[in-house]
């Protein structure tokens, strides 16, 4: 994955707007949600909205009626678009990013403030690390992670954190989107090792099979996939 490049219409240190909607345009019962997120173009991945974030946010938006009152944790949140949609739709959200990247955590906080969500907690959670923050985390129903599988060396750390949370919350699901960057990358063996299973979610099932989503030209022509990871049963299914 190369350095983020500036996209047309985005200024360094600027803001971007995303609009989620359903129903026919102009229809009386059309639901919509508009969000603003800070966008600092920098080499740190968490300061930039990735195509996967728009797809996961669309999944959250599409399933918003099931999210009311659910406890949601976003990991590797960066600009936090999926977590913000969940919070606006009535979920109790906690945002997290690496405890070693204070600028990313600051960006999560900025996203909350820009969207009148000052009470959403932002915590440092580094994948693979059993920290006091992870140990003291409140119960969770849904873990969100957009474009967290971008560096193969981190894959097992991500899944150990997810497994740790699912052991404590066996009903929890990990909703995650990833960008296909190499056909050689796979998490299948790691899922098996950590007694997790994944279910592929077709993009068309939540109206995300488009180059333009949420009033944005992301995800463009990138190949984005969505899956739901959960604990496998004792018989491995
Ligand atoms: C490719 S960016 C995706 C950001 C955001 N989720 C999105 O899709 O726009 C990867 C994110 O993972 C975070 N990250 C990287 N290494 C991490 C680690 N070891 N533990 C926790 N978060 C990490 C980065 O700070 C960044 O926010």
From TrEMBL:
The keyword Transferase applies. GO terms for molecular function: methyltransferase activity. Keywords: Methyltransferase, S-adenosyl-L-methionine, Transferase. GO terms for biological process: methylation. Gene3D superfamilies: Vaccinia Virus protein VP39. Pfam families: Methyltransf_16. InterPro entries: Methyltransf_16, SAM-dependent_MTases_sf. Residues 1-23 are annotated as: Disordered. Belongs to the methyltransferase superfamily. METTL23 family. PANTHER family: HEPATOCELLULAR CARCINOMA-ASSOCIATED ANTIGEN, HISTONE-ARGININE METHYLTRANSFERASE METTL23. This is Histone-arginine methyltransferase METTL23. It comes from Apteryx mantelli.
């Amino acid at each position: 994955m190369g350095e983020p490049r500036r996209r047309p219409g985005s200024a360094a240190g600027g803001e971007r707007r995303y609009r989620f909607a359903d129903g026919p345009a102009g229809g009386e019962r059309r639901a919509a949600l508009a969000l603003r997120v800070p966008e600092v173009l920098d080499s740190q991945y968490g300061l930039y909205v990735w195509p996967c974030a728009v797809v996961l946010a669309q999944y959250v938006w599409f399933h918003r009626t099931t999210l009311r009152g659910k406890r949601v944790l976003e990991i590797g949140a960066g600009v936090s678009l999926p977590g913000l949609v969940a919070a606006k739709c009535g979920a109790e959200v906690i945002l997290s990013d690496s405890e070693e990247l204070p600028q990313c955590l600051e960006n999560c906080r900025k996203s909350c403030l820009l969207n009148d969500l000052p009470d959403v907690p932002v915590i440092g959670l580094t994948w693979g690390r059993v920290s006091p923050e992870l140990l003291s985390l409140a119960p969770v129903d849904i873990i969100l992670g957009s474009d967290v599988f971008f560096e193969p060396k981190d894959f097992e750390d991500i899944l150990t954190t997810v497994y740790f949370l699912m052991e404590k919350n066996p009903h929890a699901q990990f909703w995650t989107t990833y960008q296909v960057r190499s056909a050689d990358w796979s998490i299948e063996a790691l899922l098996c090792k950590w007694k997790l299973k994944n279910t592929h979610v077709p993009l068309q099932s939540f109206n995300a099979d488009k180059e333009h989503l949420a009033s944005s030209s992301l995800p463009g022509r990138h190949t984005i996939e969505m899956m739901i990871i959960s604990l496998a049963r004792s018989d491995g299914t």
